Amino acid sequence: MADEATSGPLLELDRITQVFSTRRGEVRAVDDVTLRLGVGEVMCLVGQSGSGKSTTAKIASGLLRPSEGVVRFEGEDILGQRRPDKSRFKRFRRAVQYVHQDPYASLNPIQDVYSTLSAPLRRHGLVKNRSQARERVAELLAQVGLTPPETFMPKFPHQMSGGQRQRVAVARALTLEPRLIIADEATSMLDVSIRIGLLGMLTKLRTELGVGFMFITHDLAMAKYFGAEGDIAVMHEGKIVEYGPTLRVIGDPQDAYTQALLEAVPEADPDLARRKRAARTAAKAANADGAPASGAPAA
User: Fold this and answer.
1) 11-105+180-286 adopts what CATH topology?
2) pLDDT-based confidence at 298, cuts 50/70/90?
3) Where are the strands (E) in the chain, listed by range?
4) SS3 for 42?
5) What are the respective helix, strand and coil percentages of the chain, to the nearest 5?
6) Where in the chain are the domains?
7) Phi/psi of residue 216, each to 5°?
8) C-alpha R_g of the chain
9) Keywords, A to Z (predicted)?
């Protein structure tokens, strides 16, 4: 797995469980999940709908308090107390930002781009006047590839494409200079070509700003593209079934569920697809004697 900073992980989920009560009884949406993410690292959390990945993301961002387990940021438990320390929790919420799946629903339809981006800057005292606010908003828009910035500042969400709206959502996440961005299926509602452009922009931000990413997706191809240098955790029915360096897990999946996800990824070349299936079948046969299962790190 990616090396952790010498001071320890930036964000740690330690044996997190989330139970929801329904008319049919209790549902374990997240079941004993442990994850660690270092400074500037990228982690992909992968699984089908209902696997628990989005619930895990909301817990990691502080939007949801877990039923059991500990969320640590820079080594400090930020959700464990009934009344968390306000200043500590405020620092955490500023340092960890969330990008939602639907950019139209997550943006205020009656607020233009300038107002959307300048509001958090003013609220947190990061700008002193309107001139500074416009300058910073212009920088943010340029960072996410919306240029010239002056063209986009007066626009409302309905006046932009889905890809442009999602870039505004990313710019809003950047306003508070976060250390970690949690992107929850942030590309799933976009066309493939637009997805690639957005992922390229996120990769550039990670390189230039040193911000870390927790990337939530159901698509192993997207996970491989964006998270090749980091780790991947595969979730199924609330549990992590496979966890490790992204390229190793995707290149040689040990769990049957991971293998099924990989086989569901479309392959443009039919001959290559057949060769890959044959190679995986041969690998399964070679491991039939019982290779050790891959899983989450020990608590």
Assistant:
1) Rossmann fold (3.40.50)
2) very low
3) 11-22, 25-37, 42-46, 68-73, 76-77, 96-99, 180-184, 212-217, 231-236, 239-245
4) strand
5) 40, 20, 35
6) 11-105+180-286
7) -95, 125
8) 20
9) ATP-binding, Nucleotide-binding, Transport
